[in-house]
Amino acid sequence: MLRLADSLDMISRLTASVIRWLALVMVLVQFGIVVGRYVFGYNIIAVQESVLYMHATLFMLGAGYTLLVDKHVRVDVFYAKAEPRTQRRIDVFGHVFLLIPSMLVILYWSWPSVRNSWKILEGPISVGGIEAVFLLKSLIPAFCILLVIQSLSLLIRLLLPETSRPEAKA
């Protein structure tokens, strides 16, 4: 089971290793937009939209990795002061009854919109923008799938006996 969890973690790590470069590209493109607009008085809407696409891609595809490294937002009213065993129970509850079901619901309800967007190759958000809204909408199911994969990995680790968990050996 630990090997399966490691394999699932690798999906998040590989995704993050590719998309992390979008942060740098996004900053450089935004800098170019500012220079182009305020120094040269030149503006291209498609380039402006590309920042939106990169930003969405970075956050939607990076969510699984964020969960893996435990840097996601956590409402820790009870969690922070709880014993490790209680924290594990809270985590299991969160994965089984909140995260996985909500991702499956979002996946189910967003799929028709994504499918239709691909069917018509949905065009730009703005006139002169990027003619690929269908790619932007495809981030929704990708986000859901990556979060479910990472959630399953964490759930496997949470349900392993105490002695076989990697953190127990450290």
UniProtKB/TrEMBL annotation:
Presence of keyword Transmembrane: yes
Domain Tripartite ATP-independent periplasmic transporters DctQ component: from-to ranges: 26-159
Main location: membrane
Family matches, as InterPro entries: DctQ (IPR055348), TRAP_DctQ (IPR007387)
Subcellular location: Cell inner membrane
Entry keyword set: Cell inner membrane, Cell membrane, Membrane, Transmembrane, Transmembrane helix, Transport
Membrane topology note: Multi-pass membrane protein
Ranges annotated as spanning the membrane: 21-40, 52-69, 90-111
Family that this chain belongs to: Belongs to the TRAP transporter small permease family.
Function of the molecule: Part of the tripartite ATP-independent periplasmic (TRAP) transport system.
Assembly with partners or alone: The complex comprises the extracytoplasmic solute receptor protein and the two transmembrane proteins.
Protein name: TRAP transporter small permease protein
Organism whose genome encodes this protein: Hoeflea alexandrii
